[in-house]
């Protein structure tokens, strides 16, 4: 049954055969390390020129079948296709197991785009303009928009209208709206409009608009989903070509250990295969590192590129003293605020999303229903006015169309002492009562952390809320979310479910700074958007070439000069497109 729903698996059986049967040769023109949002795009685009011999090394396997089912996204966390790192909570995480924030990221073809919540959000045009004005030449909104559009295969749907000029329709990466709105989504959008937000396409120029109170646009999410199935960058950019392009070799379960350097030139990669056997492969033209924000600095550090003192302390010979490798780490945070009386009852979630349920059978036959979404459904964009750069849209207030199930709260979010004593389990998990979540996100934090070498992987230290301004912005964003819930469209029967332990200490006033600060410090966690550990201007130049090195580039979230005001997968794929284009110009390749 699973196979009939997931034709891409059947179609791509040739591709899976190619993965397992192809042994990497010893020399390529280009070696790309990491098959996620950035790396899958780079490898796919470079191999459009049949003269370019490309090797893509990916530590994980092909994506498992569950990855194609959108609602299974949370359940992939903590499985072998998740790197499953964690970080000390810093200023947050007091209510999490061991005070630690779990940091999932995808370890498979498609990388984190095969485990993520699939919202397709590009950020604010002004984010990219400020990248460019800070020295990232060529990265202004006007200059990056063509690369967003190049990837995108927008599938026009019923809701709502989009700005057609802002979208691409011929690219391989499916972007769509849900045809069937889930309970509560249109209520959230209507309430945000009553509060002053404008229903507009958040991936267009309109995203830059703000009213005098800092309210911008609101819209149901656009998703990287096609016909009810996740479309990761692996699905979009690799599957159609694996086994079909003789010049593209994709090696799965190939864990890169270090980039091989001769003097100041990258000449290849050493990796370990699934059997633990070490191999060296050579690149005659370039090595592109695209292992994601945590692992890319890890690979550079293991290769001897990074802060000399730290490398010496870790016993790694310094090949290039580059102090900023691994620094400047930043991330968005989320706070899940459960609401009852609106959204989807747990009983429906169980019926629609578990293999025994009738609703799930319908999904398997038609690709429709609750299982065809992550339930992370709509966003409104806000400026608290407290970010030092005036007009920065530091807040994203989203609607989750269900309160999910205990698995999400306990295993994915890592809530400690998850019991009736501390939480309103009756309201959260009453199977008959509609429930949802408001997701309050701090998008433009000022706190910075770092990634350090630790054995064969890295230690991640996020320093969440280290900067006092972050706390103030975040409290203001949560209070704004409550003002949206106060609008007439939300019925009086809707109730915000405050964790019992917090309401006992801080009361139930949803405009209380003390309550929100405590809630944030206890239960805020990552929304999985780490960036900037090899930032343009600090580790790489505007062509994403590692400073003072030849033949070595980075193409993933680690090169963001600054965070953006929105989810990150679209921008990471855009970086892949732009890097591939710059490489093609340099090496005289003809891309399709
Ligand atoms: C749970 C979750 C939910 C998210 N939800 C959303 C969302 O709804 N919308 C959105 O826009 N963004 C979302 N994101 C973020 C988005 O998916 C990431 O920003 C984006 O995928 C990052 O792209 P990347 O290329 O930097 O890294 P990745 O996509 O993580 O790819 C890195 C790849 O490198 C591989 N790799 C790492 N080390 C090695 C090595 N040594 N050797 C070989 N291969 C290696 C990894 O296995 C991985 O495949 C989410 C992320 C997560 C984890």
TrEMBL record:
Keyword Flavoprotein: yes
Gene3D superfamilies, sorted: FAD/NAD(P)-binding domain, Glucose Oxidase, domain 3
PROSITE patterns per the UniProt record, alphabetical: GMC_OXRED_1, GMC_OXRED_2
Keywords, comma-separated and alphabetical: FAD, Flavoprotein
Ranges for domain Glucose-methanol-choline oxidoreductase N-terminal: 106-129, 292-306
Superkingdom of the source species: Eukaryota
InterPro entries, sorted: FAD/NAD-bd_sf, GMC_OxRdtase, GMC_OxRdtase_N, GMC_OxRtase_C
Cofactor dependency: FAD
Family: Belongs to the GMC oxidoreductase family.
Protein name: 4-pyridoxate dehydrogenase (4-pyridoxic acid dehydrogenase) (4-PADH)
């Amino acid at each position: 049954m699973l196979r009939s729903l997931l034709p891409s698996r059947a179609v791509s059986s040739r591709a899976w055969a190619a993965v397992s049967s192809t042994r990497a040769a010893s020399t390529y023109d280009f070696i790309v390390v990491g098959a996620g949002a950035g790396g899958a795009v780079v490898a796919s685009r470079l191999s459009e020129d049949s003269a370019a011999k490309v090797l893509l090394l990916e530590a994980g396997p092909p994506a498992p079948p569950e990855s194609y089912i959108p609602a299974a996204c949370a359940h992939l966390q903590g499985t072998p296709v998740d790197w499953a790192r964690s970080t000390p909570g810093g200023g947050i995480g007091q209510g999490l197991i061991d005070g630690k924030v779990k940091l999932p990221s995808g370890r498979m073809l498609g990388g984190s785009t095969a485990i993520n919540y699939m919202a397709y959000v590009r950020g604010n045009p002004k984010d990219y303009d400020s990248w460019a004005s800070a020295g990232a030449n060529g990265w202004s909104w006007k200059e990056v928009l063509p690369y967003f559009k190049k990837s995108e295969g927008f599938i026009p749907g019923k809701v709502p209208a989009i700005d057609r000029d802002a979208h691409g329709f011929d690219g391989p990466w499916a972007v769509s709206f849900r045809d069937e709105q889930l309970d509560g989504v249109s209520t959230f959008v209507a309430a945000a409009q009553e509060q002053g937000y404008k229903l507009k396409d958040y991936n267009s120029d309109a995203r830059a608009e703000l009213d005098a109170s800092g309210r911008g646009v609101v819209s149901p999410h656009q998703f990287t989903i096609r016909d009810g199935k996740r479309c990761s960058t692996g699905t979009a950019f690799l599957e159609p070509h694996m086994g079909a392009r003789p010049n593209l070799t994709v090696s799965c379960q190939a864990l890169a250990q270090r980039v091989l350097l001769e003097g100041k030139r990258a000449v290849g990669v050493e990796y370990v295969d699934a059997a633990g056997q070490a191999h060296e492969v050579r690149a005659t033209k370039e090595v592109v590192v695209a292992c994601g924000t945590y692992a890319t600095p890890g690979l550079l550090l293991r290769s001897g590129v990074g802060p000399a003192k730290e490398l010496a302390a870790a016993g790694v010979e310094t090949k290039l003293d580059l102090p900023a490798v691994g620094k400047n780490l930043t991330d968005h945070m989320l706070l899940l605020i459960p609401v009852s009386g609106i959204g989807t009852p747990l009983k429906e979630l169980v019926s629609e999303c578990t293999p025994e349920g009738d609703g799930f059978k319908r999904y398997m036959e038609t690709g429709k229903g609750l299982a065809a979404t992550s339930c992370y459904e709509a966003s409104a964009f806000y400026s608290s006015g407290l970010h030092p750069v005036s007009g920065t849209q530091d807040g994203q207030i989203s609607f989750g169309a269900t309160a999910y199930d205990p698995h999400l709260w306990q295993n994915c979010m890592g809530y400690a002492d998850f019991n009736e004593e501390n939480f309103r389990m009756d309201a959260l998990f009453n199977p008959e009562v509609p429930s949802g979540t408001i997701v309050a996100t701090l998008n433009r934090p000022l706190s910075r952390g770092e990634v350090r070498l630790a054995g064969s992987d890295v230690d991640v230290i996020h320093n969440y809320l280290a900067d006092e301004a972050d706390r103030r912005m975040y409290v203001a964003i949560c209070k704004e979310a409550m003002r949206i819930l106060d609008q007439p469209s939300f019925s009086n029967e809707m109730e915000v479910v405050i964790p019992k332990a917090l309401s006992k200490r801080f009361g139930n006033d949803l405009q209380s700074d003390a309550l929100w600060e405590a809630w944030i410090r206890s239960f805020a966690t990552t929304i999985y958007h780490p960036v900037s550990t090899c930032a343009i201007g600090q580790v790489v130049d505007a062509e994403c070439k590692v400073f003072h090195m030849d033949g070595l580039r980075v193409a993933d979230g680690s090169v963001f000069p600054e965070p953006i005001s929105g989810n990150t997968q679209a921008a990471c794929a855009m970086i892949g497109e732009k890097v591939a284009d710059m490489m093609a110009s340099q090496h005289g390749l003809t891309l399709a």
